[in-house]
Amino acid sequence: MRDVSYPLEEYYDAETTARELQQLNRHSRNMMHEYRNLCETITKKVEIFDDDYEYQPPHYYEVYCKGYLMLREDERMIKPLEQKCVYPAFHCVQRNRLLFLVRRRWNSECWEPYTKEIASGCDCMWPVTSLGEINEHY
After folding, report:
1. 17, part of any domain
2. For residue 69, which of 119, 124, 127, 123 has the smallest C-alpha distance?
3. FRET label pair with 123: which of 11, 29, 36, 51, CA 20 to 30 Å apart?
4. Does 62 reside within a domain?
């Protein structure tokens, strides 16, 4: 059997160590970088009202590129967004994601999974189709 030695109290003080770590975390938090989105966005709260179903959660948030929300749904598919970002060659591109919800008929106790594609943000991107690969330019 081996003798396991523990650090002496004078060398290790858990309270002091915890306090020092807390200070370190506080300093790091103050030094964190702040970032800004390169494209302007509009956030819209969507309440889910349905005569047949109750949804959980009952609302969600969509994030659109500014200007994209103003287009009709059929125009969104064919019309490129005019908003530019950083350098004129880059474009603001609408991002979407799947939202996972549950729903049930108003007269039922049984919940079922439900997914919906929603607008989730706006990214500043290089248009490969019109300008080719970015490494050919930079």
Report:
1. no
2. 119
3. 29
4. yes
**pTM, two decimal places:** 0.62
CATH number at residue 81: 2.10.90.10
How many other CB atoms are there within 10 angstroms of residue 50's CB atom?
10
Q: Collapsing DSSP states into helix, strand and coil, what is residue 101?
A: strand
pLDDT tens track for 4-50: 454 555 555 566 666 666 666 665 666 677 888 889 999 999 999 99
The predicted-structure confidence for 117-131, as pLDDT tens digits, reads as follows 999 999 999 888 888
Q: Per residue in 72-111, is it b (16+ CB within 10 Å) or e — as a string?
A: eeeeeeeeebebebeeeebbbbbeeeebebebbeeeeeee
- Residues 98/116, Cβ–Cβ less than 8 Å: yes
Residue 120, classed as helix, strand or coil, is: strand
